[in-house]
Amino acid sequence: MASVVSLFVSPAIGQPMQTCSSVRAFAGRGLEGDRYERGEGSYSKLARVAARHVSLITIEAIEASNGELARRGLTPFEMHETRRNIVVEGVDVYGLLGKEFRIGAVRLRGSEPTKPCHIPSAVAGKIGFAEAYRDTGGVRAEVLSDGTISIGDLVQAD
Q1: Domains in the chain and their CATH numbers?
Q2: E strand or H helix at 149
Q3: Is the dihedral of CA 91, 88, 25, 118 positive or negative?
Q4: In this structure, which of 33, 56, 68, 118 has its CB flanked by the most CB atoms within 10 Å?
Q5: Ordered per-residue pLDDT tens for the chain, 158 residues
Q6: Which pTM was predicted?
C-alpha cells in the first residue's frame, strides 16, 4: 500500500525542515507552518502555470539518489534535507501528474515535476543534490481540500 512515511515543513527560506507527525493542509495554499503556505518560498514570487503548494518524493527515489552519491564518494542526503514536504513509499509520484489523488482525506492534484536545484545542497552544506536527484526529485502538487495529513496515511489515486 502506498503511504506517507515522513512529513516536513520549513517556516522560511533556507531554514531547516521540521519533522511533523501530522500537519494541516489548506486548499489553495499548502501545509500549515510551511514557507509555501505563506507565499514565502524560494519560488513563490515567480510566475508559474502550476500550483506549488506541496512537494512529494518517494523513499525509493531518495535511496536510489543517495546510492549514486555514495558511489561518487559524496555524502547522502537525509529525508528532511531533500526539502520535500511529503515522503511516500510504494507509489510512482510521476504517475500522479495531472491527476487528482488523496493522501488520507486530503485531495490533491499533481501539478509538475520538481527540478532539483542548489538549495538543498546549500542548506545541508553538502554537494551533489541537483545532479543526483535530477530524475528522481519528486513532484509538486496543488492542495484541493482542507484536512490533516499524517504519517501512515494512504496515498490513493482517484
Answers
A1: 3-157 (2.40.33.20)
A2: strand 147-150
A3: negative
A4: 56
A5: 899 999 999 988 778 899 999 999 999 999 999 988 876 655 545 555 557 889 999 999 999 999 999 999 999 999 999 999 999 999 999 999 999 999 999 999 999 999 888 888 888 999 999 999 998 999 999 999 999 999 999 999 87
A6: 0.91
